[in-house]
Specification:
This protein is α+β, with helices and mostly antiparallel strands and about 350 residues long. The strands form two sheets. Strands 1, 2, 5, 6, 7, 8, 9, 10, 11 and 12 form a ten-stranded mixed beta sheet that branches. A two-stranded antiparallel sheet has the order 3-4. The longest helix has 18 residues.
């Protein structure tokens, strides 16, 4: 396991957030009943109540809506964006070589931005946020737009059975990041106090076939069977390997981001929207307040949004809670590879 050095006050802020979550919700109990008994039991055990399911918009379309909402919240014009990063874990609906970030740049009219499309599992959006201080340190680069977007509906990926303990939801989440200046220090938003990332590349095999395979039509279905790859890996390396690595990584992030424990404690910890048993076993015990400070009540209604859980959760907080200057929120991400990232925010 390797760690990135903890970052001091990063000199960046989240100036605005936006999200797109489809109104359509799939009832988990009803969906479970449509599966064989063994799968139905596993689906119900995840603890979700409903799952967000998009019927018409593709990931790029959802990303555009979320991005426009984030820019409006940040009172930022597209022409002022210097960097655009789009993250996803699933297909975008177009050819493999197509660039979602460049498409979003074109649709927004962000002509001077540098576009990046990032595929680093479900932690990709927070990894980009972790690097944002460096990305915005160059002279003339002050603003970044980071967007996570995924749609699993009507695809070869069965959102209910493809993975262990997780059901996947559709949606997009965006954040506008700004380099702090004397004139922006008191603007509304969230100051990034500290970020910390942990990597354990020994776990990359959780999402890999034993051997490379030639491109065939049959392989398309195998690529979407996350559970089969995990089963092979855990059979070879033991079922405790992922749990122990996760607890170590999350504990390290807690110690770096909250060196003084609960003084002051974050009002909320925005975890990945994994199934409730996974959160109870691997995440809640490591942070003050555990489930009480989590957004599980929100996550249980939308499902796991790929790399968008944390920013979608922060956007949810913006619309449903009030904050005072100095209040803190902690974002925690995890993704294939394996990586974990923590981001400690303070209300400006």
């Amino acid at each position: 396991m390797t760690t990135a050095p903890p970052r001091p006050p990063a000199g960046i802020s989240i100036a605005g957030t936006g999200s797109y979550l489809p109104e359509r919700r799939l009832d988990l109990t009803a969906e479970a009943a449509r599966h064989p008994d063994a799968d139905a039991e596993r689906i119900r055990a995840t603890g979700y109540r409903t799952i967000a399911a998009e019927e018409s918009l593709y990931p790029g379309d959802m990303a555009l809506v979320a991005a426009e909402r984030a820019l409006a919240a940040a009172e930022t014009e597209p022409k002022d964006i210097d960097l655009i990063a789009v993250t996803a874990i699933h297909r975008h609906g177009h050819q493999r070589l197509w660039s979602p970030a460049s498409w979003l740049q074109s649709r927004l009219g962000a002509t001077r931005a540098l576009p990046f499309t990032v595929a680093q599992g479900c932690n990709a959006q927070l990894l980009v946020l972790d690097l944002a201080a460096d990305l915005l340190s160059a002279e003339g680069r002050r603003t970044a737009l980071i967007v996570a977007t995924d749609r699993f509906a009507a695809s070869g990926f069965d959102r209910f059975t493809a993975d262990y303990g997780i059901v996947y939801g559709d949606g997009a989440a965006a954040a506008v990041l700004t380099a702090d200046t004397p004139t922006t220090g008191q603007a509304p938003g969230w100051r990034v106090l500290t970020t910390h990332s942990v990597s354990d590349p020994e776990l990359e095999g959780l999402h890999r076939l034993d051997e490379p395979a030639p491109e065939t039509r049959a392989l398309f279905g195998a690529e979407h069977d996350v559970r089969a790859a995990k089963k092979r890996y855990l059979a070879a390396h033991g079922t405790d390997s992922l749990r122990e690595a996760t607890r170590r990584a999350v504990r390290e992030i807690r110690e770096v981001l909250l060196p003084h424990g609960t003084d002051p404690a974050p009002r909320h910890v925005v975890y990945p929207n994994l199934g409730l048993p996974l959160l109870q076993e691997n995440y809640f015990p490591e942070f003050p307040g555990g489930a009480d400070r989590s957004l599980w009540d929100f996550g249980a209604t939308v499902g796991h949004l790929g790399s968008g859980d944390q920013i979608a959760g922060l956007d949810h907080l913006e619309h449903h809670h009030t904050f005072d200057t100095g209040d803190r929120v902690l974002l925690l991400g995890a993704g294939a590879g394996f990586t974990w990232t923590g981001v400690l925010l303070e209300r400006r």
